[in-house]
Amino acid sequence: MVKKEKRHNGGQTAESIVAAFIEKQRKTAKGQRLEMLQRDLSGTIKLLTDLLLPVFGTLEGFHLEYEIVGTNGIKLYADVFYEPLGLVFECDGYVPHVELMTRDRFSFERMRMRTFALGGYMYFPFSRDELDKKTEMCRRAVYEVLGKRGRGGAGLRDLPVHERELLRMAVDVSIFGPADVREWLGIREEKARLLLRSMTQSQLLVRVGGGERRCHRYSIAEQGKELLRKP
Fold first, then answer.
1. What is the predicted pLDDT for the residue at 150?
2. 59 has pLDDT over 50
3. What is the pTM of this model?
4. Which CATH number fits domain 9-151: 3.40.960.10, 3.40.50.300, 1.10.287.180, 3.40.50.2300?
């Protein structure tokens, strides 16, 4: 029996969505990051296709070969970074990553993990064998970390209920407006606008585009992201 490909947005396959995403990332990259994006990305492609796209339903908010500067000034690159929640995902095969690893490389990898931790990022690695043989287990692990880090962290508990729920809903999109807030929270237009204004003043949200008098779009500000990242 031929296995049917799961279709996503507009009937696209996961493979076509991931291919377009990688091409878009390459077009906006330069320097060392571009060089890294031109290398073999088979592990990253598997991670995106089999795990992250099925769980998140979209690749918005993700960055490939995301640059992180360590306290020693060395530039490090995270294979797949989910910016809204500060999650670093990586996928490695056993032979290239373990059997062929030198002592210097082993020490470097430990330094990378420490740098991620010091930067407040959560490091979430997977092996290719796990993704091949235990796909559902891997997906459940990601759902669990989303529940702990993005949907119910201690940082959100002191917020008023509407502010808390707006951040939880907005974490899956990059930009949103009053109409989205009304739909998410089931509130009227005036209440949505007052909520957006209040959260912008408290620096949980930031305006995107528009002018001082008229602005229709918003995104989560850095302070809001910090609350979402707290376990």
1. 54
2. yes
3. 0.64
4. 3.40.960.10
